[in-house]
Amino acid sequence: MTDDLGTLLRALRDGADLTQEQVAERSGVSVRTIRRLESGRSTNHRMGTVSLLADALDLGAEDRRRLADTLAGARRGGTEPRPAADSQPDPAPDPSSGPGRTPVPDPDPRPAAPVAGPRRAGQDPPEPAPAAPAPHSVHDALAGAAAELATEVRRRWRREEAQRRVHDPFPLPVRWKPAPAGLTDRAENVRRLGPGETARAVDLDGDLRSVAEVYLRIPSGRLVVLGRAGSGKSILAIRFTLDLLEAQARARAPHGRVPVIFSIGSWDPSTTALRDWLIGRLLRDHPHLARGGSRGATLAAALVDADLVLPVLDGFDEIAEGLRPAALDALNATSSPLVLTSRRDEYAEAVRAAHAPLVWAGGVELTDLTADDLAGYLPRTARAVPSDEHGDGGCGAAGTPWDPVLAEVRARHTPAGAALATVLTTPLMVILARTLYSETPGRDPAELLDTGRFPSVRSLEQHLLAGFVPAVYRRRAPERDAVGRRPKAPCPDPARAERWLGHLAHHLVRSDRERHDLAWWQLGGSVSRPTRTLAVVLATALSITLADWLLGLLLTPLGIGELLVQGSLMGPVAGLAFGSVYAMADGAGDGSAFEPARVRLTLRAPRDGLGRRPLRTFAVRFGQGLFGGAVMGVGCACALTLQRALVSGTPLTDPRVVEGTLIDMLVFGLVFGAAAGLVFGLMAALEAPVDVTAAATPVSLLSSNRATVRRQFLILAPALTLAIALGGHLVVRLLQGTMGRLNWGLQDGLFIGTVGGLGGAASYVLAFTAWGQWLVLSRVWLPLTGRLPWDPAAFLDDAYHRGVLRQTGAVYQFRHVRLQHHLGSTFRRRHPAFAPAAFPPPRTGAP
pTM, whole model, 2 decimals? Predict the structure, then answer.
């Protein structure tokens, strides 16, 4: 009967055409309470609350009676109290009930006990984590979106696991022990028990093969995974995601929370709420979730709000040091299940600064690899060699170059063996050693025991890091693709590859914090802002100049000399106009204003919520186009005056020239501004969200944005041409007489409109789209200066397939942050012109 109440409330709200937020504002009832009532997750139905909702919905007598009858029925369908948690064994987890949930009935309707662990003074405890939504309470559109998301997440991380060769020859063992007590919450809080109830600690024993099973034992659904750099936290996050999705698929739980890995290092809790950041990352990595859900919200927002996403937050230690306490406070203000990975020391410092660990969270700490682990793994990655290579005359069994090295590591009789044993305790260093010695011909791992070359643990680690890129970029015969074609870009030599990768690693270091997402649309950010503006001015000036010259030959009777003068003046003036607008937009967006479009252009009318706010979208686009077009028109008027002065010799100080110039500035500003505003405003009507098939990998996102920009140009060019030509005729007729005698002939209007349409559309594409910025800066400017190859996309994709980079949705990241740091510091040492990054002093307390 509880579910009937939620269904009726939702139907009545839909009938009133109100959102949950609007009902909350009218009634004074919180959005969370309304959500819990509608989803059937609340067992404490108060008539006063329901009456407030009825008043807010303006229900009639019949609907109020139905609501009262349903409420009475819900009250008769009570539940039995749950036994104390320590009176019986933990029930078997049921993935269909959502991560971190067990199929135990809800207890007697009462609020959950507040968390007893440490918490910042004055901070109210968050509300209890809601149970997973019942299948019937999830709207069909959300259910479909969750299923699509689960399929895409599964496909993506299976591919990434294969790319990282996790299973070749077998996964390195990843084990853990319980995290220190000071870094986790109390056992009764992790179990979400009420006052007076006691509980034993949750059993967290397991390894990489059982990580999802261990997680499902945690009633709160909140887990912290700690470990040293390179200890396997990211691999564990991937395996957890895949195993949990597999468990849900076996249990046929289509509405369970979908685990999604988020690299949390880019989150700034001081400027962006966690919910908004999660939604933004979902839209970036899964652009099909930009489709409209209920009440115009995107599907990404609807999935997060419906608790259908389980955040797997990887890399808490990569958040800027001064922001970590604020980030932990923000996570503690939420109640949703989540998984958090971090280095231990960085997390412990944040806990001390925030005066509380992650509330309700159990914790594990990854342990080191052992000598037995190394002995079982490294020899199987190397070629077998006859035993006479080790001096026994070939009579013994076949061995590997690793055998004598591992014997020294196991014995630890020498400083060299002890140092190497210390280094090879993390999967990262083992993989680097494997790449450098097992997969590179002619390399003998015995050199790792040379104390003259490697006197310390640090020197060994630096050697393995430094040798990784040259090892994976050793020359190979280029392979043909499926249709027999050679690859477009030849394999770069290791020195150039290391220089380009070093530039990319250096590009990720900013003055305020270090980034980890390597996005193709942000590569131009490595160019200084004045240089970016100069590149845009040159590119747009070239576009307008070429359009003026080519069309002038076809549409005007001007001589070659006059036409050359006109184009040479018109292009630079228009370039300066576009450059000034670009500089303002770039400054306001701090280099990130031009992100890939999450829409495609289609002549079909959108069938979802994306087009439910056309007036607002039109107004914004119209205002932007009006301003940019007006600046462009004023610049063209000045260029025409200068052209006439040069051709006819009329002085610019002549009063008639000044008056004519001012009139031209007004007319051209109105014509170009109105035309650009109208065209860009109406363009919104042709936008639709990208297809689910356009999965956001870096390559596919670049390809889809190239196609979108091509369609934008094909629509903008003729639309602007007609709007300028016809709009100019209309404006001149309206101002005729008021401004004196104005002339807008058919031939002149067609020429000005065509130049403005083709040149303006090309300039817009180059200056104000992500693909245009990629073309101007990453495909032309940076290769010209030697900082990137001529085909950066192919280079990045090749680096990914070689294992230097990894894919995280629509962006690349370096395989490990330590490799990023090494390449960046090496690049800066070799380029003294680059000053070291200056970071602000760390804050020891919460902001």
Answer: 0.71
